[in-house]
Amino acid sequence: MSLYFEWRKSCGCRVPCNCEVQPKRMEPRYYFNQADEMLVIPADTPTQAIELEVTTFLPNETVKLDAMLEAFILTENNPNYSFIVEFSLIRGTTPLTSESFAMINQIGQSDVEKNIINTSKITWTDIVPLPGTYTYFIEVNHITLPEQHIASVEIQDRSLTAIVFSPRKLPNKE
Predict the structure, then answer these.
(1) Euclidean distance between CA atoms 169 and 83, whole angstroms
(2) How confident is the model at residue 50 (pLDDT cuts 50, 70, 90)?
(3) 3-state helix, strand, coil in the chain (%, to 5)
(4) How far apart are alpha carbons 128 and 98 in whole angstroms?
(5) Distances in Å between the alpha carbon of 62 and those of 14, 93, 168?
(6) How many Cβ atoms sit within 10 Å of the Cβ of residue 78?
(7) How confident is the model at residue 102 (pLDDT cuts 50, 70, 90)?
(8) Using an 8 Å Cβ cutoff, are 122 and 97 in contact?
């Protein structure tokens, strides 16, 4: 018969940690979502491309957000084309920031469809006032222009990531 003793700290960790100084709920937490199936963006219809739920535990936690979206714009057989595609980062119903990809009054080769590919990136730091679960999402809008001659706008690869940081502790002044 053998005895087996497992050493554990009072916090439950089996490895060296700093739980007495910084509890686990105060350590940075990583969230992510990604997709690669093609998503058609109808004209003048804001469409949710990807979403991410993030949980905060303390007031005023910092949420660092990063997003990437790959857009495919296909023109019609017309030498002239214009388009605006807007990517918006939203928390719940609150718009945080947006990024646009636009080409206005472009002239290309006659009788040839053009395939335009763009990768847009969005980064934002959000300070959430109250603890809770928040939904962040990227909304894509293909804004119609006169004489645009655009056959389709599609999104393929896309990702949304977040890292949550607890509020900074200020040193005690003694």
Answers:
(1) 47
(2) very high
(3) 0, 60, 40
(4) 19
(5) 29, 19, 9
(6) 18
(7) very high
(8) yes
Domain ranges of the chain: 28-165
Q: In angstroms, rounded to a whole number, what is the distance separating the alpha carbons of residues 98 and 83?
A: 16
* CATH class of this structure's domain 28-165: mainly beta
Task: Tell me the three state secondary structure of residue 26.
Answer: helix
Structure tokens at 87: 């990517």
Structure-block tokens of residue 156: 């393929």
DSSP track, 54-97:
EEE-STTEEEEEEEEEEEEEEE-S-SEEEEEEEEEEEETTEEEE
16 residue type, one letter: P
Q: Burial level of 164, CB count in 10 A (0-12/13-18/19+)?
A: buried
CA distance 71 to 86: 11
More confident residue, 90 or 77: 90
